[in-house]
Amino acid sequence: xxNYNEKLKDLIVLFSKVVYKFNKLQEVPFSFDENEKLYxxxxxxxxxxxxxxxxxxxxxxxxxxxTKGAISQIVGKLTQKGYLxxxxxxxxxxxxxLSLSEKGLITFQxxxxxHDQTDKxxxxxxxxxxxxxxxLFKRVFQGIEGYIDTTITSINRTK
Length: 159
Prior knowledge:
Order of helices and strands: HEEHHHEEHH
Strand order of the largest sheet: 1-2
Helix content: 55-70%
Strand content: 5-15%
Largest sheet: 2 strands, antiparallel
Number of domains: 1
């Protein structure tokens, strides 16, 4: 049993390292043109809006699982930088639709090309997995996501 527990501890440490490195990646700015750098959170907002004709802060908040306030801050920066266009819903003035400007569309297209390349590389790496192994990974990640959601909820209740 001790060997099993050690293996679990090693797995948790490895997972923590991966999460830490992914978080560090969030801090690295990317450049899709010579003049401006964007962070991953900004790029993913551009991507989400680019994949949907009209998006709202509420829709993005729901998709990303983060607060409307956090999304609004990113949207504000992207609008100020000229990547997004805000347009009020003519039938409900409280709703603001977000779409990409020409600059945003170019960045979205460049990001999609980059994603195609990196997704291909990762798919080749993961291509050795069987269907059952892929389902196992999916189940594990869903379980971890649920654990993290529960932890966040618990922490928020104690504030």
